[in-house]
Amino acid sequence: QVQLQQWGAGLLKPSETLSLTCAVYGGSFSGYYWSWIRQPPGKGLEWIGEINQSGSTNYSPSLRSRITISIDTSKNQFSLKVSSVTAADTAVYYCASSRGYSSSWYYRFDYWGQGSLVTVSS
Amino acid sequence: DIQMTQSPSSLSASVGDRVTISCQASQDISNYLNWYQQKPGKAPKLLIYDASNLEIGVPSRFSGSGSGRDFTFTISSLQPEDIATYYCQQYDNLVPYTFGQGTKLDIK
Questions:
Q1: Minimum Cα–Cα distance from A39: chain B residue
Q2: From A4, which residue of chain B is nearest by alpha-carbon distance?
Q3: Cβ-nearest to B96 among A44, A60, A114
Q4: What pLDDT, on the 0 to 100 scale, is given for residue A28?
Q5: Tell me: the pLDDT tens digits for B28-48?
Q6: For residues B26-65, b (16+ Cβ closer than 10 Å) or e, as one string?
Q7: What is the per-residue pLDDT across A84-122, written as a single tens digit (0 to 9) for each?
């Protein structure tokens, strides 16, 4: 069974860089794409971006200029950085699997981390 | 980006009721649609994938249907533990993946 555990700084000042990491336990790390999703307080879900084992990334057009997603296959971990944060980046951030392969590719967020609340405040 | 519109945004129903949530895509997405349940303070949980397939371990009272632009999520007999917010999500053209705005379901 795949389990995701995430961590990172929870309180940032405007203009700082948000940094989160997600570790994957169990299953096949290389058989998935790995995503970050965020949820502002009281609001809906927004996909941020994804990465595969080769380091190939896809980003949300609305956030692309400020996002970097990276991967460390030796540790079964992937990370998110968001630069120049503002109060609008305050949200619970989730890591999740976004694509998997089992005889063919499938597309769904079936494994999730526990979520990390990131607050941006001066 | 493909926009997903859910209705209603909130819903109150009684235990045992049949509950239906709608999701409409801004363009034809075939059956490339998933449904999630999110309880307060928890990560979303996948319930239905590819519009109508029940995820392993999910109770059979949950179901999904539809294709093209219009989709429906149904709970055949509402249980107290079903109180949550429900989201649809599309993956046509793969990225960017987009979600509906959510439907908050509570007990009447």
A1: B43
A2: B43
A3: A60
A4: 84
A5: 999 999 999 999 999 999 999
A6: eeebebbbbbbbbeeeebbbbbbbbbbbbbeebeeebbbe
A7: 999 999 999 999 999 988 888 899 999 999 999 999 999
CB-nearest partner of A107 from B91, B98, B99: B91
A64 reaches B (C-beta below 8 A): no
Q: Which of B7, B54, B95 to mutate to test the interface with A (most CBs of A within 10 A)?
A: B95
| Candidates B55, B94, B99; nearest CB to A44 | B99
Task: Label residues A33-51 b or e (16+ Cβ within 10 Å = b).
Answer: bbbbbbbeeeebbbbbbbb
Touching B: A residues 93-112, CB under 8 Å: 94, 96, 98, 106-110, 112
Per-residue model confidence as pLDDT tens digits over A20-73: 999 999 888 888 999 999 999 999 999 999 999 999 999 999 999 999 999 999
Distance between CA A20 and CA A9 in Å, rounded? 7
**A53-58 long-range Cβ contacts below 8 angstroms, 24+ apart:** A53/A29, A58/B94, A58/B95, A58/B96
